[in-house]
Amino acid sequence: MSNGCDKLHKLFNLMERFIFPFDEKKIHSNGIYILFEKGECAHGADRIVRIGTHTGLDQLRSRLKQHFINENKDRSIFRKNIGRAILNKNKDPFLKQWEWDLTTREAKSTLGKKVCYQRQKEIEKNVTKYIQKNLSFIIIPIEKKEERLSLESKIISTVSLCKECGSSVKWLGLHSTKNKIRESGLWLVNELYKEPLEEKEFIALKNHAWLAIKSNEQVK
Questions:
Q1: Strand partners, 138
Q2: Is the terminal CB of the chain with fewer CB neighbours within 10 Å at N or C?
């Protein structure tokens, strides 16, 4: 899998990079996002630390906002995992409350009164600060939902199966409470170690990427 992962890193590192604050108008409505993190390197390039997409039509921009801007860890598992690592690193007992999911009416009724919302707000701001300061991303425009989900899964598997990729000793994810995050070096727990990209799928992915690169060059 190392060769496939190497090709992915080289391709994705050629693409236009977005950092916060980003121009929404330059973000496609549908596609896959690839995240990179400061201080993380692999295959002679910036290391991929997360791969993601969206299920709803035209919801890519909204998904990125949930990660980078909206301070609600129950609407972004990525934010929740960043918070887990920060709290665990600092041996902060608030980690127990951070784990609570308050999206349902029942949870709000049973747990809502126990939550220290002021403290939760402080952690949300710390998570936002970390993400906006350390994370960047590229976008691969893909309109069809089925293709997005299939390629997302296979990119994740290709990277997670690579024997040459690994986190730095300073990577925040090493403080995660999730074994899969610590072991894979990715801010992910799903779709790891499954079916990697086949050559024909990599070619399709590459075509999507090059269309985006050419489009960006024309705009410039």
A1: 34
A2: C
The string of pLDDT tens digits covering residues 189-200 is 999 999 999 999
How do residues 77-108 score in pLDDT, each as one tens digit? 999 999 999 999 999 999 999 999 988 888 88
pTM for the full model? 0.93
CB atoms under 10 Å from CB of 125, counted, come to 11
Decide: 141 and 53 in contact? Cβ < 8 Å.
Answer: no
pLDDT, tens digit (0-9, with 9 covering 90-100), for 132-151: 999 999 999 999 999 999 99
Query: How would DSSP label each residue in the chain?
Result: -HHHHHHHHHHHTTSPPB-SS--GGGS-SSEEEEEEEEEEEETTEEEEEEEE--SSTT-HHHHHHHHHT---GGG-HHHHHHHHHHHHHTT-TTHHHHT----SHHHHHHHGGG--HHHHHHHHHHHHHHHHHHEEEEEEE---HHHHHHHHHHHHHHHHT-SS----TT-GGGG-S-HHHHHHSSS--SSTTSPPPPHHHHHHHHHHHHHHHHHHHHH-
What pLDDT shows up at residue 130? Answer: 98
Residue 46 to residue 62: CA distance in whole angstroms? 25
CB 61 within 8 A of CB 141: no
Closest alpha carbon to 81 in 13, 35, 33, 149: 35
Q: Which of 177, 179, 169 is nearest to 40 (CA)?
A: 169
